[in-house]
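Structure tokens please, single chain.
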Amino acid sequence: MQTLLKLLVLLVLLTACASAPPFERDANYKPQPYPRDIILKDPLPVGDRLVWGGEVIALENLKDRTRIEILAYPLDARRRPMLDEPSQGRFLVEQAGYLEATDFPPRRLVTVYGTLQRQITGKVGEAAYQYPLLEAAKIHRWSLTEPRLGWGNVHFGIGISISN
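Here you go.
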């Protein structure tokens, strides 16, 4: 009887330590307009709330905010960028305050919830480029240890996570 009670207490403690997914899974998730498409809209839908993700290209700490350049990719049902799909343009993200560059190195996968602010003219190499700019409400850095492509249906860790 005591062994069963100890086992139940252990299971409750392990459940309490399990972390929630960064974004709710949604089998009916419909992709939003991609950065390369939204920049062509006239007028630009300033104020729209968007969820975009991709690979960090560069990070720049400005006087009172941080700007991140991201190469966009389509998102899966968990809102994780799918690198096996073609890229969908570039976008900029700004967040008030200072972000550490080592937390957002080049090629780090991120997903951003934010509000479309405006477009910014910049350069990619020597070519002019129109970037949509999001003001970040949330930036999620995806784990470096999670496989980038083709992750399976069952993941083991502290507890078990089953995904589609």
